[in-house]
Amino acid sequence: xxxxxxxxxxxxxxxxxxxxxxxxxxxxxxxxxxxxxxxxxxxxxxxxxxxxxxxxxxxxxxxxxxxxxxxxxxxxxxxxxxxxxxxxxxxxxxxxxxxxxxxxxxxxxxxxxxxxxxxxxxxxxxxxxxxxxxxxxxxxxxxxxxxxxxxxxxxxxxxxxxxxxxxxxxxxxxxxxxxxxxxxxxxxxxxxxxxxxxxxxxxxxxxxxxxxxxxxxxxxxxxxxxxxxxxxxxxxxxxxxxxxxxxxxxxxxxxxxxxxxxxxxxxxxxxxxxxxxxxxxxxxxxxxxxxxxxxxxxxxxxxxxxxxxxxxxxxxxxxxxxxxxxxxxxxxxxxxxxxxxxxxxxxxxxx
Length: 351
Fold this sequence. Notes:
Elements: H1 6-11, E1 35-41, E2 53-59, E3 68-69, E4 92-96, E5 101-107, E6 110-111, E7 122-123, E8 135-139, E9 147-153, E10 166-168, E11 176-179, E12 182-186, E13 191-192, E14 203-212, E15 237-240, H2 242-249, H3 260-263, E16 270-274, E17 280-290, E18 303-309, E19 318-324, E20 327-339, E21 344-350
Antiparallel strand pairs: 1-2, 1-8, 3-4, 4-5, 5-14, 6-7, 7-13, 8-12, 9-14, 9-15, 10-13, 11-12, 16-17, 16-19, 17-18, 18-21, 19-20, 20-21
C-alpha cells in the first residue's frame, strides 16, 4: 500500500502538531499565552512541486488543548478532503500543560521505494532549500519561566519508553533546537520505520518537555513544572537550549589557571563533586575536547569536558566544587546534556 498521490500531498502536509492544554497557574504554570506555528519547506515537496511552502497558523490560548490537526480549516491543517492545507490524516500538534510539553504526530509522506526515489526510505516528503531546512517553527512559548532546554522522546503514545515509528535520527538535538521562546523542529531529516500494513501508515510521535530555569529534582524553583531529566531510553535526551548553553560558555570555571593539558592526563579517572558541606558525588572524566574557536594571543585555548555521574541525584545546571587528588579544587559550571545507560553526562565549557 503506497502513500497518497503527491498532487494531493502538495495540498496536505506532514508532521504532527502542537496542542497546548490549559492548566491552573499554581505550582505548575503551564502555557500562558497564544502560540504560533509556522511550516517552512524551502524546497517544496518531494516528487510534487518545488514551490516553497511558508504557512503560519495561530493557536489561541483557549484552543491549545486541540492545537492544529488535519481538517481544522487552518492554513497548515487544511480541510478534511485535502483541497488546501498541508497535513496528512492523523497529523497533529498539541500541548500538554501537566508536563509543559509539545506533542507531535508526524506522518510519512514519501516512500522512496514506491515513488521513484533513489532509496527505499520513508520520509516526510518535505524538502530543504537555499533558505534552510524544512521545519516547524513553534513560537510564543511562555511557561512562566526562562526555557533553558528540553527532554525529547519519540515513542508511540507520547510516552517516555516503548516502541517507536522513528527510524532515524536517534539524537533529538539533530532535529530539535530552542532559541528563546521558539522551538524549531526539522522535518526533512526524519526517516520512518516501514509498517507491515504499508508505508501509508508510517508515522512517529514526539513528546518534547520544556525545561525551565530553576526547575529540577534538587531545585523545584518557582516557575515551570519542575521537569527532571528523563528516564533512560534510546530516544530520550536532555538538551540545553542555546540560551542556557551560551551562559555556560561565558564562564564555565571560576578558577582560571587550568587548561586542556591539565585534564587530558586525567581522562577516565575519578573526580568528586561537592554538592554541599556534607554531600559528595563521584564522577568520571569521560571526554576532554579542544574548542574550534580562536583565542587571543597568550590566552587560553577554549576546551570542553564531559563528566559522567550517577543517575541519581540528577543535578540542575549550576556551579559545583570539583576535586581531584592530582589538582587543586575548583568551582566549575556544569550543564546536564544527556542520560545514558550508566548515568548522567554533564558538560563544562571553558573559553
